[in-house]
Amino acid sequence: MSMHRLTPWMRRISNRVNQWTVLHHGAAFPIYVIAEYPKSGGTWLGRMVADTLRVPFPRHSNLPIAMTSVIHNHWLYDPGLNERTIYLYRDGRDVMTSFYFHRMRWIAKGAAHYRKRAAIYEGLFGKGYDPADSKKHMARFIEHEFANPRDCRQNWRDHISEWFGPGDDASGRPSIAYVSYEQLREDCAGHLARICEKVSGKAPDPWIVEKAVESWSMERAHGRKPGEENRGDLVRKGVVGDWVNHFSREAAQRFDDLAGDVLVRLGYEPDRGWVDRHDL
After folding, report:
1. pTM
2. Which end of the chain has fewer CB atoms within 10 angstroms, the N or the C?
3. Residue 12's domain spans which residues?
4. Contact indicator for 254, 143 with CB cutoff of 8 Å
5. Are residues 235 and 248 in the same domain?
6. d(C-alpha 89, C-alpha 156), whole Å
7. What is the pLDDT of residues 256-268, one digit of tens each?
8. How far apart (Å, rounded) are the C-alpha atoms in residues 101 and 92?
9. What pLDDT, in 10s, does the model give residues 5-25?
């Protein structure tokens, strides 16, 4: 087996061992967990939490991690996850927008692992489709993404529903520290301090929190201000609410049919009439 094929396989095995370690021995190190549905800002948050708690943040490890650290993942909820767990969530409409451009970026690069997906999108959008025409393709993209989640074993609605547990409000599970991407964009230092205190049991030094936020800001990490778009970068735009620029009315209705209840539960919309209120 070539190293190109071996490395993804090793990472999958490492991820499974990491999850087992956290569930059975995570308190011994300790290991702090940041779980998210993909494209919700988990890498950004992981770097800030690691800097605030003064622990490593291993990335893309081919070997299991068994040391004090912050682990970022897309795991499904498990009752064994404890008070050292942070769940990050984001408006699913922005998640779908981010995913769309993420997929198109890799296809444009001709990435080998996206060749099959490129053929799928040609079937969905038509041969010779224009990837820049997000409004035209978003409805079909959303439907396909919900039916065939690739980067996570569940779609956005089901992943969030399991992590928040039974009920119809956003109170969630008492042992989990919840934070949204939107909260971090509004008051990053305040919410970073809040979740770090919950998972560590100790209020962090405000100066350390501020330095962590500054170090991983869009300006410092990517050389751009939030809102300045770069479709060739992993972080395309880094803003809240960009979905309105890429959703047609059909796409909005499709999203509401598939996950409108969770959108309301998390407070992103007051009710299911949001499609009619937006000028799409």
Report:
1. 0.91
2. N
3. 3-91+159-219
4. yes
5. yes
6. 9
7. 999 999 999 999 9
8. 14
9. 547 788 888 889 999 999 999
